[in-house]
Design goal:
The chain is an alpha+beta fold and 77 residues long. It has three helices and four strands; from the N terminus they run E-E-H-H-E-E-H. It has a four-stranded antiparallel sheet.
Length: 77
Amino acid sequence: MSQGKRRTSAASTVTRSGGQKLKLKEVLAEIDMSRSAFYRMKARGKGPKCIKLPNGQLRVRRVDLDAWWEANEEASV
């Protein structure tokens, strides 16, 4: 997926330091992947770095998702 197709929504959170944290639903929409496929990829250690909140929800920092995109673009070339 090219950078032009990346999208974010107003629902994502921004930390005090200004770093954006995306909800899993936003990440899944951006990478066009089902929740189950994402969890399989994550279990294999191939997914983007996630933050698990005390309530069990996952967040992904924008910078971590961008780094994951870059690593996968390089690997597929």
